[in-house]
């Protein structure tokens, strides 16, 4: 859309703390949790497969759990990128 803004944030903290970076960026840019798209790895998806999920639990992903905790919400859209199991 014309005038749409996109802010890419790559946290530099440990994965278990990256929610602090996301919450800080959300405050700076006045984003609500539903404005945020989290891109993260997913062991349960085959390598290269991608899925979009709205809300829900962290499903054991510590980085996602950190974001849910820091934002006090699970309403982010998640772009889950498959890395497969070793």
TrEMBL record:
One Pfam family name is: Pept_tRNA_hydro
Say yes or no: keyword Transport present: no
**Which superkingdom is the protein from?**
Eukaryota
User: Which keywords accompany this UniProt record?
Assistant: Hydrolase, RNA-binding, tRNA-binding
Question: What's an example of a GO molecular-function annotation for this chain?
Answer: peptidyl-tRNA hydrolase activity
Q: SUPFAM superfamilies attached here? A: Peptidyl-tRNA hydrolase-like
PANTHER family linked to this entry: PEPTIDYL-TRNA HYDROLASE
What name does the UniProt record give this protein? Putative peptidyl-tRNA hydrolase
In its UniProt entry, the species of origin is given as Apaloderma vittatum (Bar-tailed trogon)
Q: What is the lineage of its organism?
A: Eukaryota, Metazoa, Chordata, Craniata, Vertebrata
């Amino acid at each position: 859309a014309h005038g749409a803004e996109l802010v890419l944030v790559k946290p530099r903290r440990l994965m278990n703390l990256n929610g602090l970076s996301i919450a800080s960026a959300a405050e700076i840019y006045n984003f609500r949790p539903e404005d945020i798209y989290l891109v993260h790895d997913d062991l349960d998806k085959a390598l290269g497969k991608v899925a979009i999920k709205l809300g829900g639990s962290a499903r054991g992903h510590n980085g996602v759990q950190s974001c849910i905790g820091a934002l006090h919400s699970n309403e982010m859209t998640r772009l889950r990128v498959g890395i497969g199991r070793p």
